[in-house]
Design a protein that fits this description.
By secondary structure, this protein is mostly beta strands. The protein has five helices and 33 strands. A hairpin with an 8-residue loop joins strand 24 (326-330) and strand 25. The structure holds calcium ion (CA) (4 copies).
Amino acid sequence: MRAFTTALILGFAGCESDCVGVGCLDDFGAASALLHLGATLPESGEFPGSEASASVSGDIFLGAQWHVAIRPGVLIVGTSADSTVRSFKPLIGDALTEQQAEGRIVGEQSEDGFGHRVVVIDGPDGERDLLISDPKKSLTADTSHNGAVYRFQGIGDGWTTRLQAKDAVMRMSGESPGGRLGSALVVCPDIDGDGLSEWMASATRDNTTASMAGQVVLALSADMAVQSDQLGIDALDTRWTGLDIGEAAGSSLSCRHDLNGDGTPDVLIGAPYADRPTIEDDETPQDAAGKVYLIYDSGPGTPDTLSAAADLTFGVGDANSWFGWSIATGDIDGDGLNDLAIGAPGAESTVGAVHIWSGAQIQGGDIAAPTHTLLGVESGGRFGWSTHIADINGDGIGDLLIGAPYVNPTGTGATYDAGRVSIYFGSAVAIEDWTETQLATDAPLMFTEPKQYLRTGQRIFSGDFDGDAAMDLVFLHRIQAN
Ligand SMILES: [Ca+2]
Ligand SMILES: [Ca+2]
Ligand SMILES: [Ca+2]
Ligand SMILES: [Ca+2]
């Protein structure tokens, strides 16, 4: 079956560009989302990125910046370039094109960026709802790019009709022009205690406290229940702003897991462009060293700055590390405590690094140095661009996936920006006792294919497509525009 699907997928992307190497990005302006069932993954070795259980590919109108949600038998794909979200129902072996979408939702205006993020959330009625962000939403002509988040009822497991943005049961808009609410969007398990999930969104260019400092709102289910269906972010009290000019707080968000052991999920907010003193030089802030804020008590609150609200602030590395570009949580050493991995793709002159804090160390409170650090290999590879934790082999322990989408495995133009995903299977070994496996290429399993501009690892999505214990993956690749 695998050989068959590989032939299909390679057949689709088979037309070769005349352009080779640096400067050919425009030739690869389309995208393909490749589904890999967890149960089909090998335990070790190198696995070509193009081998897939199923795929969805688009043309240049859909652009290359897709966002994907995985549900049982369903892939939901947001393509902000054409301001559309599509629902697909691929069978194993299928290589679908965008024309084969069963359902669609189109944004309010074609120049919007509707579909920038798509995430599924449990609805109050037991159905699953769909949240869609549009950071380029402009409310009026003179308030451009406030951004917005929409909620659609009951279609989180797919749909078969054509819907419009106005069919949403809720639209929340950003507070400041140019702030771009919906730059990131995630769902949190219940925090406020009513049994319903929350969601969290960022406006990374928000100017409320300082220019481009960013703002994050936590939309608690209890608060949302008393709001109108058209509201602004300022209707909600649980939100935080960056304090420093240009820190872009909310570039990454996470609220999936409890880190301090009180049973309530905790909030992590990345600000990769934040300036921060390094350990070596504790006086002078280093440009874009990056920070991650951890907030434990994120229940109903009042608007505050992140610096004041954070219980812990993480930061490792020098100027331009972009620490906090990516964040993942989960128990990767099987001790029952959730662990934290933070990507710094700019570290070591864009080689990139991922720093890991064990749950035990976080609960101890001394987080100045990480428990363990994994390093990229190639200059410019940007290891840590994506960081993801999901149990893909179904053994009950979280597995760590790290993308380095700008890796060039041969150093020639033909493999420029081919990219790589390094996969570290979680094991019942304490993180501080991990062996010297510190380089991206020491990972037991790697996904890579030597093909220019594929950018394997630029975005990693997980979810349960086939309903077994192992989580399934979707990797997003750039492909040639046709
Ligand atoms: Ca709740
Ligand atoms: Ca907690
Ligand atoms: Ca752990
Ligand atoms: Ca596992």
